[in-house]
Write a structure and sequence with these properties.
- The chain is α/β, with parallel strands linked by helices.
- The protein is 36% helix and 22% strand.
- The strands form three sheets. A six-stranded mixed β-sheet has the order 5-6-7-3-8-9, with helices on both faces. Strands 2-1-4 form a three-stranded antiparallel β-sheet, with helices on one face. Strands 11-10-12 form a three-stranded antiparallel β-sheet, with helices on one face.
- A hairpin with a 5-residue loop joins strand 10 and strand 11.
- Helix 9 runs antiparallel to helix 10.
- The chain is flat.
């Protein structure tokens, strides 16, 4: 549990928020949302103790442990991958290092022996004997193969370090967990694993993410930073967004009576609750929605313009036709073979692959930057294209 009391954060004359009073309870995952610059990551930094608030306090339950997803990917370069994960449980790590130092002595004093006995007892209480295997399993679940577990962190790519940092944050089942953009640089399989993992935790979890699909999957409550305030709403991102848009339409409809507005909001809550999936986490969310007071629903001040594409002319029905495409890498390994598909007007298509090289090769081919080993592709007569490559620096 995390209790925030009278929290205020101000940088110079700019006040992010003030008089924030919140209680984050165990068993809930709080998705933190807000416009860019609203102070989402800053709130996590204040809760973790990394940032001293202008005013107010942050407290956790007695004896509770806090874990944070570290954003500094170079901080642990001098350590091995497995040791970096083990350091996620700082008390256990300190115990391990002190035990090693005692047992490394040529001769132990009686005091050393007594201290070693105390450390051994605490080590067992923290499941220290299983710690290394648990850390290895966490790494494997996050897509870090066994061959990397004892390599130096400095040898890893940035994407690989992201996974190790996430394993470090999750390791040891912390009582309170702060995750700032945890899905960055993760593939779909790993994101799915993380969603399932978080869906089964009983701890207190705070998540900042721009991935609304991820927030929908994991959040039981939504923390909205808006109007210079930090407010908690029941439900996930979609519920918050749809309810805030409904409240906005109601606010703009001056003729609609108060009792009609209330009935509309109550019907919205019932309809959304009925559509919630049946997992443990979403069942809990459903109960929260059923208890929700309609007065809690407020319109958002944020605008959602989206990315608007202006076409020179209306496209035809045929967008792209691909027939039997094949590509190999420089060593002759087949990246893909006999790929055929047809895209028509109005469709939005997502391409998924476990091999990023295969995905890059496909896009390079259909954008005319690379020759296919076999097969053809054909864009519609009226189609113009734009391409953002993976390496766009």
């Amino acid at each position: 549990m995390i209790t925030v009391t009278n929290l205020a954060i101000q940088f110079g004359k700019r006040v992010l928020y003030k008089d924030v009073n919140l209680k984050f309870t165990s068993g809930n995952i709080y998705g933190i949302i807000g416009a860019n610059g609203a102070g989402k990551s800053t709130l996590l930094r204040a809760i973790s103790g990394e940032l001293e608030p202008t005013k107010g306090t942050v407290e956790m339950g007695p004896g509770e442990r806090l874990s944070v997803l570290d954003q500094n990917h170079f901080k642990f370069d001098q350590y091995s991958v497995i040791d970096t994960v083990l350091m996620g449980h700082q008390t256990l790590w300190d115990n391990m290092k002190e035990r090693e130092a005692l047992y490394a002595k040529e001769e132990m004093t009686e005091e050393d022996g007594n201290r070693a006995a105390v450390l051994e007892e605490k080590f067992a209480e923290m499941n220290g004997w299983e710690a290394e295997s648990d850390a290895a399993q966490m790494l494997t679940n996050l897509g870090v193969p066994d061959s990397m577990h004892y390599r130096q962190m400095s040898d890893l790519s940035n994407n690989e370090k992201v996974r190790v940092m996430l394993a470090k944050a999750l390791f040891g089942n912390p009582d309170n967990l702060l995750l700032d953009e945890p899905t960055n640089d993760l593939d779909l399989d790993t994101v799915n694993w993380l969603e399932e993992y978080l869906g089964n935790v009983e701890q207190t979890v705070l998540v900042v993410s721009h991935d609304r699909h991820f927030l929908d999957a994991v959040s039981t409550q939504t923390v909205d930073i808006d109007f210079g305030k930090v407010t908690v709403f029941s439900g996930n991102y979609s519920f918050w967004y749809e309810s805030s848009q409904l409240a906005l339409r109601q606010a703009q409809n001056q003729k609609q009576k108060a009792d009609e507005k209330r009935k509309e909001l109550e019907e919205f809550i019932r309809r959304f609750s009925a559509n919630v999936a049946k997992s443990r986490q979403t069942t809990s969310r459903k109960k929260m929605l059923e208890k929700l007071n309609v007065e809690e629903i407020r319109p958002s001040s944020r605008k959602y313009p989206g990315i608007i594409f202006q076409m020179d002319r209306e496209p035809g029905n045929q967008i792209l036709e691909v027939e039997g495409l094949k590509a190999t890498d420089n060593e002759g390994n087949v990246l893909f073979d006999n790929v055929s598909f047809n895209i028509e007007k109005g469709q939005k298509v997502v391409f998924l692959s476990h091999n990023p090289k295969a995905m890059t090769a496909l896009f390079e081919i259909i954008n005319g930057n690379r020759e296919a080993d076999a097969g053809t592709y054909k864009w519609g007569v009226t189609i113009t294209t734009a391409y953002l490559p993976l390496d766009n620096t």
